[in-house]
Design a protein that fits this description.
The complex is a heterodimer of chains A (111) and B (114). Chain A contains no helices and eleven strands. Chain A is mainly β and 111 residues long. Chain A starts with a strand and ends with a strand. Chain B is 4% helix and 49% strand. Chain B has one helix at residues 98-101; strands at 4-7, 10-13, 19-25, 31-37, 43-51, 54-57, 64-66, 76-78, 87-94, 104-105, 109-113. In chain B, a hairpin with a 2-residue loop joins strand 5 (43-51) and strand 6 (54-57). The radius of gyration of chain B is 13 Å and the shape is globular. The chains are: A mainly beta (111), B mainly beta (114). The interface between A and B is medium-sized, with 27 and 28 residues.
Chain lengths: 111, 114
Amino acid sequence: GQQLNQSPQSMFIQEGEDVSMNCTSSSIFNTWLWYKQDPGEGPVLLIALYKAGELTSNGRLTAQFGITRKDSFLNISASIPSDVGIYFCAGPSGNTGKLIFGQGTTLQVKP
Amino acid sequence: DGGITQSPKYLFRKEGQNVTLSCEQNLNHDAMYWYRQDPGQGLRLIYYSQIVNDFQKGDIAEGYSVSREKKESFPLTVTSAQKNPTAFYLCASSSQGGGTYGYTFGSGTRLTVV
């Protein structure tokens, strides 16, 4: 079945550094979604991408819909301590209306 | 404000007891979902419902049960048959286009078996 693979699994960075993470699949996706989960809370939608090659920003976050439609990237510039959490990518599972989620990238930021 | 509410935030259960987790939404969403999250792990789908009075098993339904009698509510019961119930449980909802526009998640219930 469809699967989303996120890398890296975890990152430990210094405050102020830029962060890059990605999500790949063997299947084509028409939508890519990026969520952030704060510790002890539910995931919150950060960015939605609907077109191959699309580049969308939300503050210090920038996400890209890969041209092959099999991958997506999330970048965080000038990280701050509140960026700590788990970042999930997600995409639609065929025509079921359901989402498939990646396993997440855990980000820790050292002040 | 519209949203999705899970209660309680923390729940303790004795072994052998059933316990029910509440999930209520006022977003007028048709679909609702329950996920389980273990420490350092991703999200695993337990049950989902795309319409009132209908629901389907997800990937890890054994030891859990649900009902969907109202559009707004999708309670999850963790039964004594669930061998390892300690986890963080997340409820989510979406419009019928959930695969395109995404889910709205609740803030979760942390269940601990004591």
